[in-house]
Amino acid sequence: MHGNVEREELERLMASPHLSGKRAREALAFLCERYWSGEKVTQYDLSEKLYGTVENSVAARNLVKNLRQKIALHYAGEGRRSPVRLAIPSGQYDVVFEAHDPDVSVSEDPAAQTAGEGRSPRNGKARSHIGLLITALVLALLSVLTIVLLPGFIESRRPAATSVAIEGSAVIGQSADDPELWREGFPAPIFRAVELDADSVNRFAVLYGGLMTNRDDAAEVIPQLAILSPRGEVLSTLDLLDEFNPFLDTHDQHYFRFGLCLVQDLDLDGHKDILLSCNHLFYPSIVYAVSGRKMAVIGTFANSGKVKSLIPFAAIPGALGASVAGLAINNKMGEQLCVFRMSMTGRFVSPDFDAGGIPVNTRYRPIPLSRPAFEPLKLEQGGLFRAFGVNDESILFDVQSVSLESDPWFGSGTATEEAMNRLARFYPRVSEARRFVRDGMIDEGQVQYDIAISEALDEPLRLYVILDAARELKAAGKPRLALDRLPADPSEVIFPRRVLLLRGELLTILGEYDAAKDAFGEANNLHYSFDGFVQATILGGADSQDLYNDIVSSYPSKMNIRATRAWLKIPSLLRGECTMADSGQDNAHLLAGDKETVEDNIRYSQETTIWNAFVDLELGLEPQVWPDADRKPMEYSDGFELKLLALEALRHRRQNAPASALPMLESAFRTLEQAARTDHDALVPLILVAYTCGFTADETGRAGLAREALGHAVSLYPHGRKFDRARRILEAYNDDD
Predict the structure, then answer these.
(1) Domains in the chain, start-ordered, CATH in brackets?
(2) Tell me: the pLDDT tens digits for 328-343?
(3) What's the pTM?
(4) Which of 253, 398, 553, 700 could be disulfide-bonded to 378 (CB atoms 3.0-4.6 Å)?
(5) DSSP one-letter string for 188-252
(6) Dihedral sign, Cα of residue 195, residue 196, residue 198, residue 200
C-alpha cells in the first residue's frame, strides 16, 4: 500500500471530531511516523515522546487504549467509507493500515434488465451492443453516485430531535411525535446528556466515561464530552483529561469521574456553555469550562480538593468576563472548606501546589467553617463571595459553626479591598518560600514562611502555611525542622487531623516510633492514619502477635482487609524468623475464596502480593505471583516503587552468586537510604535490603560496605535473628580493629 494513501488516511483521522485532543493527535502522528520509518514502538518510547520521560509509561498505555476507542468511533461514523483503515492492534503500539471494502451492494435496476427485451430486431446487433454499453455506463455512474452521495443524503434526511434520552451507553433523539427518531451509541455508559441550544447546529452535549460500577473498579473510558447535532451527528469529542490534567503523575486517570455539571450562557454569545467537574475518587478535582459556540475547553481549574459546589456568574456586558465561584474540601490545606473563583478562560491551579508554571488562582482561600454534612450548602450571613467581586446575597449556605461577623472577608468597602490586596501578596510569598527550600536555601525559606504566617488573614490560612512549610521541609530531608514547624498541641488548630498525620510521618522518619504510633492513633477516624499506625508499631519492635493485638484494639474494622493480614507477616520478615506457614505459596489456598475489600483494591493494591513475595524470597522460594509494576495503587505514592525496588534486588540476590548480586543490592541500599530521609514508607524496604546487602558484603569481603549497611540496619531495627547475626559481624570487625 502506497505511503501517500496511508498519509491521506492519517489526515482524515486527524480531522475527525473524535480526535480533538492535542495529545491524542500527537501520539497518533508519532506512531505513524515510526511505522513509516520501520521502527517498532514501546510504551516507553511513547511516554518519552509525549511527556519527556519514560516514567509515564502507564499514562502512555492508557492513552493508546483510549486512542483505539476514538479510532473505532471514527470508523463507525464519518470514516465508515474509508478505503483504508488504520488500527492499533490490542497489546501493541505499532499501527497497521488495512485495505477496507465498504461492502455496499447495489441492486441491479429492473428497468435495465428489460431494456433490450422490447427492442425491435430491426435495430440490429450493433445497436444492441451500444445500448448495453450505454446502460452499463449509466448503471456504473449511478452506483458510484449512490456509494458517494447516498449516505450523506440519508444522514441529512435524518429527523432533527428536540430532546434526548439516555439508555445505557446510547443517546436517543426524540421529538413530540416520535420517542425514537435516531439512536447514537458511545463506547461507555453516559453520565448525562444536556440540551445546549434550541436552534443551533450543536444542540446536545453528552458526558460519557468516567463511570465506575463500584468503588473498586476503574473506569474503562476516562471522562469524555461529545457535542451532537440535532440529527445525532458527533460534531466534536473532547478528551477532558487529555486537554488538561496536572495530576497525571500521581493519580490514575481511570479513577476520575464526573461530578457537577451546569449549563448556562455565561459569555453572552447566544450559545449555552458547560461547566463541569471531574473528581478523582481521592480528592483532586478539575473544573472545565467548555464553550458551546467553540465546542472546545476554554477554561480549567485544578484543585487538590474535591469540588462540592459550582456557582456560575454570567459576564456583564462591556465589563467583567464570565466566572465561576465554588466550594471545595481541600486535602492539602488540612481538609478545610475552601472558597474559590475562577475565570471562564485560561488555566489555573489552586495555590497549594505548583504545576509547571500554570498560574495560581489567588482568589482561593480556606474559610473558618466546619465541613458541611450535606448539600446544598447554605450560609445565613451573606457575603461569602463578596471579596471576589460577587454580590452573593441571594446565595444561601447552611453552616452550623462560628460567626463570621468579625471576619474581614465578609465586611465591605475598605476592609474587603485590603483583604484581597493582602491575599494577592500572600500566595506569591508562600511560593517563594517553597522555591528557597527546594533550592536548598533552608534558612531563607523559613524566613519567608514566617513572613507568610504573619501576613495570613486568619487561622485557616495560617494552618495552610504551617502544613506547606512542614511538607516542604520534610521533602528537603529536614524532618526535625519540619516537626518544629507543627504546633506542639495539634488540638490548637482548627483541623488537627492533618497535623497529626504529618507529625506521625515525621516522628517515624526520626525513629521516634512510640510517639509516632500515638500521633497516628490520635488521628484515628481517618483512613490514612492506619498505614502509619501499623508501620510505627512494627518498627517499634512489636512481634506479629503484638501487632495483631494493637490492630484489634485500635482498628478492629481493618482486620477484614487482606493487606492487614499480609502486614502481620512483616515482623517475622524483619526479624528473619519466617516459616513456611507465612509463605504465600503455603497459604495461597486460604486466600482463593477470600473476597478482596474495596480498600484492598484501592488504597492497598497488591500489598498482599508484595509481602508474600518478600516472604517467599526470604525462605529461598521463587514467588508464584509477582507484583504488576503497571498496576499502581489508585492514590499513588513513591512507597509502591520503593517496595518493588527492594523486591527486585532481593530476587536478584536469590538468583545469583553473592559477588554478582552485590552491585544491585548496594544500588538499592543507596537509593532506599536516600528515600528514607524524606519518606517513612521507605523504612521497611530499607531495613530488609540493608540486612541482606550487609550480609552479602561480609561474605564477599567488602568489610566497609558490610559495616555501613549492617550499622544502618541495626540502628533502625535492633530485633530478631537478623539483628543478632549483624551484631556478631560488627563486633568481629571491631575486634579486628
Answers:
(1) 3-99 (1.10.10), 163-366 (no CATH)
(2) 888 788 888 887 878 8
(3) 0.73
(4) 398
(5) S-EEEEEE--SSSS--EEEEE----SSTTS--SS--EEEEE-TT--EEEEEEHHHH--TTTTTB-
(6) negative
